[in-house]
């Protein structure tokens, strides 16, 4: 007596197909468990990074009478600066989103006696304020990211001050 005696051909095929599917699923699960890159890909497929506001600052950045709100945002492992214009009626619109260097983490620094992780200050005596954003790299080296407004392009750009002589 065979295990398939009394079964029709279609019933036997259904059993073999179900065995094959179970084997394929088991093999895929084993591959994801044993291969870190596959595991990371699967996790990132289902994981949507949380948006977290780390700090905010409000000022008249462009010296034009309009208030601007600057946010330091963390999404997953990346940091961003977002600049919003604020209207008199309370609405706001996103003007710019600036990525900070990859693999940098939130940092703090002291400015005018206060610890902060985001500051707005005019550091070069032009009419516009600069955005000062401290971060740390993977080796815990501190960085001060400075974003300066370019009135010709109407955008903020990373700024590196010239070396002092």
Question: How would you describe this structure to a colleague?
Answer:
Strand 1 (51-59) and strand 2 form a beta hairpin. The protein has 165 residues and is α+β, with helices and mostly antiparallel strands. The longest helix is centred in the N-terminal third of the chain and has 26 residues, at 9-34. It contains 2 helices and 11 strands, in the order ααβββββββββββ. The relative contact order is 0.11. The model has no long low-confidence stretch (mean pLDDT 88). It has helices at 9-34, 36-46, and strands at 51-59, 67-75, 78-86, 92-99, 105-106, 109-111, 114-116, 119-121, 130-136, 142-150, 155-159. It has 2 domains: 9-46; 51-159, Lipocalin. The strands form 3 sheets. Strands 5, 8, 9, 10 and 11 form a 5-stranded antiparallel sheet that branches. Strands 1-2-3-4 form a 4-stranded antiparallel sheet, with no helix packed on it. The chain is elongated. The chain starts with 8 loop residues before the first helix and ends in a 6-residue tail after the last strand. Helix 1 packs across helix 2 (36-46).
Summarize the model shown.
This protein has 165 residues and is α+β, with helices and mostly antiparallel strands. The chain is 22% helix and 41% strand.
The structural class is: alpha+beta
Number of domains: 2
Alpha carbon gyration radius: 28 Å
So what's the CATH class of the largest domain?
A: Mainly Beta
Q: Per CATH, which architecture of the largest domain?
A: Beta Barrel
Can you write the helix and strand succession as a string? HHEEEEEEEEEEE
The CATH topology of the largest domain, please? Lipocalin
How far apart, in Å, are the first and last alpha carbons? 96 Å
Roughly what is the average pLDDT, rounded to an integer?
88
Helix proportion of residues, in percent? 10-25%
- Spans of at least 5 consecutive residues whose pLDDT stays below 50 are none
User: How can the largest sheet be summarized?
Assistant: 5 strands, antiparallel
Number of strands: 11
Strand content: 35-45%
Shape: elongated
Total helix count? Answer: 2
């Amino acid at each position: 007596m065979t295990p398939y005696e009394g079964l029709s051909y279609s019933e036997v095929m259904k059993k073999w197909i179900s065995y094959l599917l179970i084997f394929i699923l088991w093999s895929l699960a084993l591959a994801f468990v044993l291969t870190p890159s596959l595991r990371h890909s699967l996790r990132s497929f289902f994981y949507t990074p949380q948006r977290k506001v780390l700090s905010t600052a409000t000022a008249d950045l462009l010296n034009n009478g309009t208030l601007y709100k600057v946010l330091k945002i963390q999404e997953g492992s990346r940091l961003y600066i977002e600049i919003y214009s604020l209207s008199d009626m309370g609405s706001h619109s996103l003007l710019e989103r600036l990525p900070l260097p990859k693999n940098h983490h939130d940092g703090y620094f002291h400015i005018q006696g206060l610890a902060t992780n985001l500051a707005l200050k005019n550091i070069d005596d032009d009419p516009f304020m600069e955005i000062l954003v401290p971060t740390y790299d993977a080796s815990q080296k501190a960085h001060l990211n400075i974003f300066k407004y370019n009135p010709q392009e109407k955008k903020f750009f990373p700024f590196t001050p010239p070396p002092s002589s």
